[in-house]
From TrEMBL, chain A:
GO terms for biological process: transmembrane transport. It comes from Acrocarpospora corrugata. Residues 73-285 form the ABC transmembrane type-1 domain. Its main location: membrane. This is Sugar ABC transporter permease. It is found in: Cell membrane.
TrEMBL record, chain B:
One of its GO terms (cellular component) is plasma membrane. This is Sugar ABC transporter permease. It comes from Acrocarpospora corrugata. GO terms for biological process: transmembrane transport. It is a multi-pass membrane protein. The keyword Oxidoreductase does not apply.
Amino acid sequence: MTRTKASIRLRYAGTVALFLLPSAIPLALFTLVPMAGSLWTSLHEWNLITPMRWVGLDNYVELLGEERTRAAFGHTLYFIAGYLPLVYAGGFGLALLLNRAMRGRNVLRAIYFLPVVSSWVVVALMWKWLLNPASGIVNQLLALVGLDGPGWWTDPDWAMPSIILASAWKDLGFVMVILLAGLQAIPQEYRDAAKVDGATGFKSFRHITFPLLSPATFFVVVISLINGFQVFDQVHVMTGGGPAGASQVVVEQVYDLTFRYGRAGAASALSWLLFVVILLVTLVQIRAQRRWVNYG
Amino acid sequence: MGKVLRAIPVLLGALVMLFPFAWTVVTSLTPDGALLSIPPDFAPGDASLDAYRRLLEAMPFWRIVLNSAWIAVASTVLQLLTSSMAAYAFARLPFPGRNALFAVYLATLMVPMQVLVVPLFLEMRAVNLVDTYFALLAPTIASAFGVFLLRQAIAQVPREFDEAAVLDGAGHLRVFAFVIVPLIRPALATFAIFGFIASWNSYLWPLVIIRSPEFMTIPLGLASLHGEFTTEWNVVMAGSVVSVVPILVLYLFAQKHVIASVAQSGLK
């Protein structure tokens, strides 16, 4: 009797294992082990060739004191400060315009979404060519109207704006689709009720549309900030962090520390610093959302 | 009047969205000499496929396209399988420590690839797997995001469905395969689309782990092409066209579904 009970339990445990192990083993091997390895490496000095040397928290202390680290975070913040308002304002404007019934709306929506499914490498290459200082079409068009186009990604002052432009172009459709879905979820009765109370135009927008859209806005801001802090592909292809380090963002710095300078320990430490920053920023937003996000 | 005024910025914007794609195609058809002349010295009659021919000579391009395709399919299929099975366990199979284990799954979601890429490279190097298909595929065999997404979908399936099957004598594997999976097809499709696009476009991990052209995927191949042909933009744009066409065709077929699933993610 007890034996059959035990064998039933054993069979059940086997079933659970059968369902879980195909994901648990790869997650353990390719996520948890590297996480632990990364923490461990961050406490060592290691050039990837000679044996590791324990340095405790030295990598972190050193990084925090390094001008290059501050510059990398500064460039990343510069990217976010340019990219987020651009992509949000653009996406919001488009969502408002497309929210009303309009012929060909679905086609337009699909067009705006095209860059979202394209790879960052392709988008970065396209824009590198469009913004080519000498023979790119953008500067040639500017020349037609008598303007002398800048050096774009070859000019330290214009490298980051070039990256921001390409990134905003790629993600505009994503933001628009999220906000448009948020707008369409607002019941028309709310606006009608506001109209009865005399709120139209901007007033209705401020007191009805914007608050009711706040969950979608919150989602866009959280995702964009996370992606913004992790920006890499387009930077690596368009400028490689240059010219003269003008667009050296944090992940580019992690890459260079590992594969150019052979400082695996410092690279791991820097990636953890980035992770902590992203975590803190996200937590602050989740706390702050109570004040402004309306889940009516 | 309002309608026309509204249409103008939207149409202008659509033009801005389409123009870079169009210009990429035009550039890819431009003969070498005409490329750098200012103003552009190019008439439609001069169109040539030279850039495409040179592209094929410069690198094993079809092999690279094939790599991207099978890697994307394999990683999508593997993720669908491993994630839906784990999701079934978390939704339907009670066991001690289930919530704690689910929390561990969710925690892995928060760690970005950027943190993992260096140690994962070192791990692969330690077992001599750098520059192999396996290493390329490894981080995408399982997906905590998929487990999370599909668990939600399974939780919404009424239990009566499983119970009816169990009464008929079905074990968990059969309930999973013949009752649950057909009922969560929309969620599976959403996840499959995202998985495929993510794999097709992935750049950082292949960049770190792959050295030989024969194991490269398209984004990596394109970037290295750009390193080789720094000024020959017609060749680089030809590569871009070939790489972007399959994903755009796929997108156009699944367009409504893709947009609907993205739209939903913001509503939660």
